[in-house]
Amino acid sequence: MGITKAEFVTSNTDVKKCPQGNWPEYAFIGRSNVGKSSLINMLTDRKQLAKTSQKPGKTQLINHFIINDTWYLVDLPGYGYAQRGKEGRENIRRIIESYILGRRELTNLFVLLDCRHEPQKIDLAFMEWLGEHAIPFAIIFTKTDKISKAKLQENMQLYAEKMLEVWEELPPVLTSSAEKKEGRDEILHFIEAINRQLKN
Ligand code: GTP
Ligand code: MG
Q: How many domains does the chain have?
């Protein structure tokens, strides 16, 4: 699937103000700095469609991008950024939760995990919470350019083992490098397959 058109639509903190139109949407979540905004730019092949930063805590709002006039990519703030302070973190948690639980158009959430790390409690707990609320999601291991293939396999295996302690089956798992533009076709095919199912 080609992305022929990608446009910013709105930024806001209130799920009720998210765009109307009933198009399926795919949102990106994960810890601050994991590479959510960079991945949206890589997928759409637009350098600064979503704002990125070396410093965590860049994205603070729910950002909608309309793709090919028929579906949305959604950039969300990251969770778990300590420097934000308790009130700041609580605020972001509220934004994320109300969006995930309240947005009917949310078709699939991509949970991004930095492939360099072994399983982290905050991510495992977040995915369990998604499970409790029956939110469909897939995992994307990001920044694969930063480690060897062998190390990537090892970390993915560790995640699978850890998750199978609580999950009966694993969610779909994808990988990406925004830097090397890898994983783009797989992620777009994944989205396309769901879009096709929804049409039929
Ligand atoms: P918040 O908005 O703060 O939650 O962060 P984010 O998850 O949107 O991360 P962002 O896309 O802003 O990227 C954070 C940093 O990681 C930036 O310096 C990016 O250049 C870098 N980065 C993102 N993806 C990759 C990748 O695949 N490879 C490498 N090497 N760096 C990446
Ligand atoms: Mg961001």
A: 1
